[in-house]
Specification:
By secondary structure, the chain is mainly beta. The chain has a domain of 123 residues: YVTN repeat-like/Quinoprotein amine dehydrogenase (Methylamine Dehydrogenase, Chain H), CATH 2.130.10. The chain has one helix and 29 strands. A hairpin with a 4-residue loop joins strand 10 and strand 11.
Length: 348
C-alpha cells in the first residue's frame, strides 16, 4: 500500500469522524433512559458531578447519590429534615446540603457520604446553595428570612469545621444562585422579579437589577460570555448581561419552570418546566431562538446539566389525586405515589 494512499485514507477517515461529531452536536436531544429510584417524599434540585460520574438528588429528608455511568445507587446522605440543594467544593473532598427543614447546611464527606458537620444558618429555610471557589465559601439563600447565609472554614476549630461568616439581607425571597469563580455571586429574587449581584470578598450586595421576566426561579450562567439565564413564569427565559444587568432577550420556554442549564461547548441554554417540556435555546446567536421543545414528563421541572457527557438529568414521579381542600390548606397538592420517583436521562 503506497504512502500516498495511506495518507489519503487517513485524511478521509478524519473528515468522516469530524462530520459525525458535528452532526451529533447538532442533532436534537431525546429521552435516552429512565432510572427508577423509588422511595417516598418530594424533591427539589439535583446536581451532576462530572469528574466523579455521580448525580446528587435532593429527595425529601435525604440526598440520593447515583452512578451516572450505570444509573445505579451509590448511597445516600440521610438523617436530614427537608433538603433543597447541593453544592460541591473544588477540591473533591466535601459536599454541602441546604437542609431547609433543619435551618442548616449539612457538610458531608464525598468519599464516604458521611455527615461531618451541621451548621445552623442563623436564618430560615436555606434553599438554593452554591460553592464560591475564590473565597472557599458556601452561600445558602434562605427563602423565609430573605437573606444569604455565607459559610466558611473555621480556622479556630481543631478538626474540619465551618461557621457562618455573614447573613446578608436581600430585597426579597431568593431562589437559585450562580457564581463566576472570581467572587461574583448572583441570585434570583422571585417575589420581586429581580437579580441580585453580591461580592464574595466584601460580603456585600452591590447591584440589584430587573430580571426581565416575572418570578425568576432557576438560573444558569455562561461565565465566559457574561450572560445570566433566569427562567420565569409566563413561558419566558431572560438573558441578562452579568456585568451591566441589561436584558438582552426573552426567549420562549415551557410553563412553570424551576431550573436552567447552560452548555458552553454547544452554546445552548436549557429550561425544565412543570408542563413536562425541556426547552433548548440557541445562545450562539443574538436571536436566542428556541430550537427544541422536548417532551419529558409532567412535573419534571428541576434539572442539572453534565458537560462531560452533554446529558441532562431531570426528576419526577407519578401523582395520585389531590386531597380534599381544608380551611388551613385550601389548595392541596396531589399526593406522590410511593415508589414512583424517577430520573429522566436526556442526551443525543
Amino acid at each position: 500500500m503506497s504512502r500516498t494512499f495511506v495518507l489519503r485514507f487517513a485524511s478521509a477517515a478524519l473528515i468522516l469522524l469530524f462530520a459525525a461529531n458535528t452532526l451529533s452536536a447538532q442533532s436534537p436531544y431525546k429521552v435516552i433512559d429512565k432510572w427508577k429510584i423509588g422511595g417516598e417524599g418530594g424533591w427539589d434540585y439535583l446536581l451532576a458531578d462530572p469528574s466523579a460520574h455521580r448525580l446528587y438528588i435532593t429527595h425529601g429528608a435525604r440526598v440520593e447519590v447515583l452512578d451516572t455511568t450505570t444509573g445505579k445507587p451509590v448511597g445516600a446522605i440521610t438523617g436530614l429534615h427537608g433538603t433543597h440543594g447541593i453544592a460541591l467544593d473544588t477540591a473533591g473532598k466535601f459536599g454541602f446540603i441546604s437542609d431547609g427543614g433543619g435551618n442548616a447546611v449539612v457538610v458531608f464527606d464525598r468519599a464516604t457520604l458521611a455527615t461531618v458537620a451541621t451548621v445552623p444558618t442563623g436564618g430560615q429555610n436555606p434553599d438554593g446553595i452554591v460553592y464560591e471557589p475564590s473565597t472557599q465559601t458556601v452561600w445558602a439563600f434562605e427563602g423565609r428570612s430573605k437573606d444569604a447565609a455565607v459559610i466558611g472554614p473555621d480556622p479556630d476549630a481543631g478538626t474540619p469545621a465551618w461557621k457562618v461568616l455573614a447573613n446578608i439581607p436581600l430585597p426579597g425571597k431568593p431562589e437559585f444562585p450562580a457564581v463566576d469563580g472570581k467572587g461574583n455571586v448572583y441570585d434570583n429574587i422571585e417575589d420581586k422579579s429581580l437579580i441580585v449581584h453580591l461580592d464574595a470578598h466584601s460580603l456585600k450586595l452591590i447591584d440589584t437589577w430587573p430580571a426581565g421576566c416575572e418570578s425568576p426561579s432557576g438560573l444558569a450562567f455562561d461565565v465566559s460570555g457574561s450572560r445570566l439565564f433566569p427562567v420565569c413564569d409566563g413561558n419566558k427565559m431572560s438573558v441578562v448581561d452579568s456585568k451591566s444587568g441589561h436584558v438582552l432577550a426573552t426567549p420562549s420556554i415551557g410553563d412553570g419552570p424551576d431550573a436552567a442549564g447552560y452548555s458552553d461547548a454547544h452554546k445552548l441554554a436549557f429550561a425544565s418546566s412543570g408542563d413536562g417540556i425541556l426547552s433548548v435555546i440557541d445562545a450562539s446567536s443574538p436571536a436566542y431562538k428556541t430550537i427544541q421543545s422536548l417532551v419529558t414528563a409532567p412535573r419534571a421541572r428541576t434539572m442539572t446539566y453534565d458537560p462531560s457527557t452533554d446529558r441532562i438529568y431531570l426528576v419526577t414521579a407519578d401523582f395520585g389525586p389531590a386531597p380534599a381542600p381544608t380551611a388551613t390548606n385550601p389548595r392541596p397538592r396531589p399526593t406522590i405515589i410511593p415508589g414512583s420517583f424517577t430520573v429522566i436521562v436526556v442526551g443525543r
